Amino acid sequence: MIRLITSAVLVLFISGHSIAGQVHATLPANIDSNAKYVFYSHGYIVEGDNPKPVDTRFGWGMYDFPAIKQALADSHYHLIAQHRAKGTDPFEYAYTLNTQVRTLVEQGVKPTNITIMGFSRGAFITGLTSDKLSDLGVNTIILAGCGRLVWKKHTDVKVYGHVLSVYEKTDKSGSCEKLAKKSTETQSFREIAIHTGLSHGAFYRPLAAWVDPVKAWINAAK
After folding, report:
1. Which of 6, 140, 143, 160 is least enclosed by beta carbons within 10 angstroms?
2. What does UniProt give as the signal peptide span (predicted)?
């Protein structure tokens, strides 16, 4: 009888608490103030109902959102990756992410244990969010998305905290050098160029070339 009661209590405890390594569509109901949290924002093509859309315009193939989430998941942190609706306004969504991050901090999570990350349109959203969180300086990862962050009409947008940029050498979105130059208050700014020959499509799938250094960087963040 004692064993049955103990087991029941354990099940209730686990079901009421999210476990690191899980993938969430939004903030988990119960926040662990000692845990790490990572937000991944997908590219524009995934907006809508299809988690595996195929690019036919540039020949970049299928964007495998489910596989990317699975590859980015890690036992050292909670991964939050929402499937955005079609036509989502990036500025409004950046405000939503800003609110979610501040909710974590209000519940005791250290800003250094929070990473915001995005690819392409998601990278633009991530940059906007980092700018809104300038007072916290959470970790920021930009994946092939510096183009819009350095356009003339967005010259006021800067990133903060520890920053990692990853881009593909054959992709016209290119380096984040200009973003790094204007973001004068970052704690660090590291950039990695990958060489897959797949242009923007290199980030449509969970290739080790970008997934491995991204996860290593997240887990090393303190």
Report:
1. 6
2. 1-20
Phi, psi of 66 (to 5 degrees): -60, -40
Please give the model's pTM, rounded to 2 decimal places: 0.91
The pLDDT assigned to 150 comes to 82
How many Å separate Cα 146 from the centre of its chain?
15
Instruction: Give the residues of the chain that fall short of pLDDT 50.
Output: 1-16
Q: Select from 176, 114, 183, 186 the least CA-distant residue to 144.
A: 176
In tens, the pLDDT along 186-201 reads 999 999 999 999 999 9
Which residue's entry shows tokens 């819009």? 148
Domains of the chain: 19-220 (3.40.50.1820)
The pair of three-digit structure tokens given for residue 31, joined into one six-digit string: 């926040």
Distance CA 97, CA 25 (A): 12
Other CB atoms within 10 Å distance of the CB of residue 191: 16
Residue 93's identity, in one-letter code, is: Y
Residues with Cβ < 8 Å from 119, sequence gap 6 or more? 41, 42, 43, 143, 144, 145, 203
| Closest listed residue to residue 64, CA positions, set 89, 42, 40, 97 | 42
User: In this predicted model, what pLDDT tens digit does every residue of 119-147 receive, in sequence order?
Assistant: 999 999 999 999 999 999 999 999 999 98
Distance CA 128, CA 98 (A): 9
Residue 167 in tokens: 């881009």
Residues with Cβ within 8 Å of residue 190, at least 6 apart in sequence: 163, 164, 165, 217
Other beta carbons within 10 angstroms of residue 94's beta carbon come to 24
